[in-house]
Design goal:
The complex is a heterodimer of chains A (134) and B (707).
Chain A lengths: L5 E5 L3 H13 L5 E5 L2 H10 L10 E4 L8 H11 L8 E6 L4 H8 L4 E6 L4 H10 L3
Parallel strand pairs in A: 1-2, 1-3, 3-4, 4-5
Chain B lengths: L1 H60 L4 H31 L2 H26 L4 H106 L3 E7 L4 E4 L1 H7 L9 H6 L5 H16 L3 E8 L5 E13 L2 E11 L1 H21 L4 E7 L4 E4 L1 H7 L3 H4 L11 H15 L7 H8 L5 E7 L5 E12 L5 E10 L1 H37 L3 H33 L8 E4 H11 L1 H7 L2 E5 L5 E4 L1 H17 L8 E9 L2 E8 L6 H4 L20 H11 L3 E7 L3 E7 L1
Parallel strand pairs in B: 12-14
Antiparallel strand pairs in B: 1-2, 1-5, 3-4, 4-5, 6-7, 6-10, 8-9, 9-10, 11-13, 14-15, 15-17, 16-17
Classes of the chains: A alpha/beta (134), B alpha+beta (707).
């Protein structure tokens, strides 16, 4: 039995978030899913709760193109407070972009585990979540 | 060609989406009609049971007052029973045409008729207890088989409906696959021209290389010819001749005979000797100088052409002078030299020089030559045209850094310093690779004398003397501004395709997955309803893109221009957004006293003003009533429109580069789509204008359109 992970989805695409939540639920991959419509709201949440690791996610699915604060701007802010966070947070960039520039850019952040292009398949999600236990 | 393919694909794509909508809607209506059929068939079951119940009940009620009422109810139900039966049979004939159902119906009809006939008999003579008993018997014995066949019919209908649903699902997969394929096609055709443009750049480079090679070859030609000249001089074939006037005898030396290509024992006469000269200028000239020499004792030195004994045309240098005895001319003597090689070389040299000059003065390519220290020694017409400097202003005065972008030089210097692990800066930045005989062709920004800039593909080569020392550098540059701009535009489109079109398509695919994973019909239906949202979004994005393509494809001359009054257009737009103005209590002031009219495209100007105004309203600060000021002004001879507000403002440090992009939004607002400024930017630039923004968060924004 795998551990019950807390998962965070940062994306402005409602349909995509709906899909993710349903699949995670139907496939029984995660019970606890939180989501934010843009990088700024997610950053504020993490910053506010950096001393409460139980409230923070184990895994973040981060989109690139979002209003107000996009995925890379979020990463730029996140790395600044990362040291103060007492929890290992795995970050996957999941985006509809197939722009090679975005891929290159994401490689600059060692904090980003991988770069995945939408659409995301259920078994890919399963693999990602299973890999958290290792 | 590519654009057409790409348009066809776009249209095709939209057609697929529309047809999928139509087919899905049609399927849904069929599905509901199927539902109705199943429902009515089910009801038939209920009616037959009710008839049985009423029959048994009638027995109990016989001879009571309620008996009549019971028979009335029976009549009503029989009526509905018959109506539903004929509906089902007709529908089966018209819509399903299923043989197996037909057989079931036929079987079913005999039971049905028996029930109907006996109940009709009872309704006609309700008081007859024999008929009542017979009715009860008939109903009892026929109801069960009737129900059985009816169940079988319902079952068949259910199966038919399920198989239709299955088919619908397959159709969906088919459409999604098709949509994705055509979308990939669109993306492919979007990238294709970019790829081609790159190819164009490469071919430009190849041309440049070829051109450079040509220049080099010509320079080598010159050298070769020069060498030829020297060699010929050293092994000059010079013969002698003399004419004895008293004896009318002509003497030729061995070499002279060889030059004339005559036999060694050939004896020329004065007339025949002169006839070797080519008819025309050469012969007339030689006669003239010869006669002049005899009469006036003048010597000659001429370069003329002869036709040799073997018929070959040869250039000769003939020198002659008179021999005097007691002041009287007794003879003429001189030298005779074959100068064909020299002469041909000279002519060739002249030609080469002319060609070289023609190339150097080409007005589309800038060619600059510097000495080894970088001082400009040559600045061709092409360079003058491209850069706006005159040759005299630069030659022997400046180095090419004067028309380069300083920042680019510093940047390239850093790159080279890192690569060679030593400090390289200034002029060396351009010559480092050329000095090492390495290919150096790259994009640079040139600054014209008037401050404007252009992009050039510049290649630098070192010219070396025979010892291998560098004596000069040649800089050949081609204007690639247009290609570069096109490239940027295409990259922008490709980015839109990559970001904005892929998102909805990947959503469609995810929803299909989810549809499959869903277990209950409610779940499935809920998922299905999301399809509509996504398709609507896709449609919207495509429409915006098509609009932008339309704007970009129109050339300046195709856009209809009229003299427009700013205040008229402003009033018109103000009316359109008047509800928002009142709702927000906004104050909009307009001053068009500086510039009142403009020659522009009317829909574009309307779009620009309405988008800027509605943005100012939409992103107004909740802390204060919106104040918007619209003014016109003139700057450096160009009309400007300035829209300034006291709204939320935008953090330009964070979002400045995305401000005019498609689907870029910077505030949490339900109506934000990121389309307005994108369209405005396209409209402004299509008419060679610019749009810029200054903003401070929580203070306001100022948009300036320069027409």
């Amino acid at each position: 039995m795998q551990k019950n992970y807390k998962i965070c989805i940062i994306d402005d695409d409602e349909v995509y978030k709906f899909f993710m939540k349903r699949v995670l639920k139907i496939k029984k991959l995660a019970e606890d899913v939180i989501s934010f419509p843009d990088g700024e709201e997610a950053y504020n949440f993490i910053n506010k709760n950096k001393e409460h690791p139980e409230k923070l996610p184990d895994l973040i699915f981060l989109d690139i193109n979002m209003p107000i604060m996009d995925g890379f701007q979020f990463m730029a802010e996140y790395v600044k407070i990362q040291a103060a966070i007492d929890k290992k947070i795995t970050i996957y960039m999941i985006t509809s972009s197939i722009d090679p520039i975005d891929l290159e850019h994401s490689k600059k952040y060692t904090e980003i585990s991988n770069f995945i292009t939408k659409p995301v398949k259920a078994d890919v999600l399963k693999k990602i979540i299973n890999s958290l236990s290792n | 060609m590519v654009k057409n393919k790409y348009k066809i694909l776009l249209i095709f794509f939209i057609l697929i989406i529309i047809s999928s909508q139509i087919i899905i809607n049609y399927a849904i209506s069929i599905q509901s009609s199927d539902g109705e059929t199943i429902n009515i068939a089910g009801k038939q079951r209920m009616y037959s049971q009710q008839i049985t119940k009423l029959a048994l009940y009638s027995k109990d009620l016989e001879n009571t007052t309620s008996y009549k009422k019971n028979i009335d109810t029976l009549e009503k139900i029989i009526g509905r029973f018959k109506k539903a039966d004929s509906y089902l049979k007709q529908k089966n004939r018209l819509q399903y045409d299923s043989k197996s159902i037909d057989i079931l119906f036929k079987k079913n009809t005999s039971y049905f008729n028996k029930i109907i006939t006996s109940s009709n008999n009872l309704i006609e003579t309700p008081e007859n207890s024999v008929i009542l008993n017979r009715f009860i018997e008939t109903v009892k014995s026929n109801e069960k088989p009737y129900l059985k066949t009816m169940d079988a019919i319902v079952n068949r209908y259910q199966k038919i409906s399920e198989s239709k649903l299955d088919f619908l699902k397959k159709m969906q997969y088919f459409f999604i696959t098709f949509t994705s394929i055509s979308l990939l096609g669109i993306i492919f055709f979007m990238f294709l021209p970019m790829f081609r443009e790159n190819k164009a750049l490469t071919s430009l480079n190849v041309k440049l290389e070829k051109f450079k090679k040509e220049v080099k070859e010509k320079e080598e030609d010159t050298k070769r010819v020069q060498a030829n000249l020297d060699r010929t001089n050293s092994v000059a074939r010079i013969g002698t001749w003399e004419v004895d006037l008293n004896n009318q005898k002509v003497l030729w030396s061995k070499v002279t005979k060889e030059i004339h290509e005559t036999a060694s024992d050939y004896i020329p006469a004065l007339a025949t000797a002169i006839n070797f000269y080519k008819k025309g200028y050469s012969r007339i000239k030689v006669k003239a100088v010869f006669d002049d020499c005899i009469k006036n004792n003048t010597a000659w030195d001429e370069e003329l052409q002869i036709v040799t004994g073997k018929g070959r045309l040869t250039w000769v240098r003939t020198i002659g002078q008179s021999e005097l005895i007691n002041g009287k001319c007794v003879g003429v003597f001189g030298t005779f030299q074959d100068i064909t090689a020299v002469k041909t070389a000279q002519i060739e040299l002249k030609k080469v020089n002319e060609e070289l000059n023609a190339i150097f003065n080409s007005s589309t390519i800038s060619i600059v030559r510097t000495d080894s220290r970088g001082i400009i020694t040559y600045f061709n017409e092409g360079a003058e045209t491209l850069l706006g400097y005159k040759s005299d202003e630069l030659v022997n005065r400046e180095t090419p850094t004067i028309f380069h972008d300083e920042k680019e030089i510093i940047k390239r210097g850093k790159e080279l310093s890192k690569k060679y692990k030593k400090e390289i800066s200034g002029f060396d930045v351009f010559t480092k690779l050329a000095r090492e005989n390495k290919e150096d062709s790259r994009k640079w920004t040139y600054k014209r004398k008037d401050g404007s800039s252009l992009y050039v593909q510049l290649s630098t080569n070192a010219i070396k003397d025979n010892n291998g020392d560098i004596i000069a550098f040649i800089w050949v540059g081609t204007d690639i501004t247009k290609v570069t701009e096109q490239n940027n535009q295409l990259a922008n489109f490709a980015q839109i395709a990559s970001h904005n079109l892929r998102a909805p398509v990947s959503n469609l695919s995810s929803l299909l997955d989810l549809h499959d994973l869903s277990e209950t019909p409610e779940e499935k239906e809920f998922t299905f309803s999301k399809f509509k949202t996504v398709i609507a979004h896709l449609n919207e994005t495509l429409n915006t893109l098509i609009e932008a393509i339309k704007i970009r494809e129109k050339k300046g001359s195709e856009i209809d221009l009229k003299t427009l009054s700013f205040s008229k257009i402003f009033k018109k737009t103000e009316e359109i957004i008047s509800t928002d103005i009142t709702k927000l209590d906004a104050v909009i002031t307009a001053y068009f006293s500086a510039i009142r009219t403009i020659k522009y495209n009317e829909p574009y100007l309307e779009s620009i003003i309405i988008n800027l105004l509605s943005n100012s309203l939409r992103y107004s600060s909740p802390k204060r009533a919106p104040k918007i000021q619209v003014t016109t002004s003139i700057k450096e001879g160009r009309t400007q429109l300035v829209v300034a507000d006291n709204g939320l403002g935008i953090d330009l440090k964070k979002h400045g580069n995305k401000l005019f992009g498609l689907n870029k939004v910077f505030h949490r607002h339900k109506d934000s789509k990121g389309v307005g400024l994108y369209i405005v930017k396209n409209q402004v630039t299509s008419l060679k204008g610019t749009i810029s923004c200054m903003s401070e968060v929580d203070k306001g924004s100022t948009f300036t359109v320069t027409f």
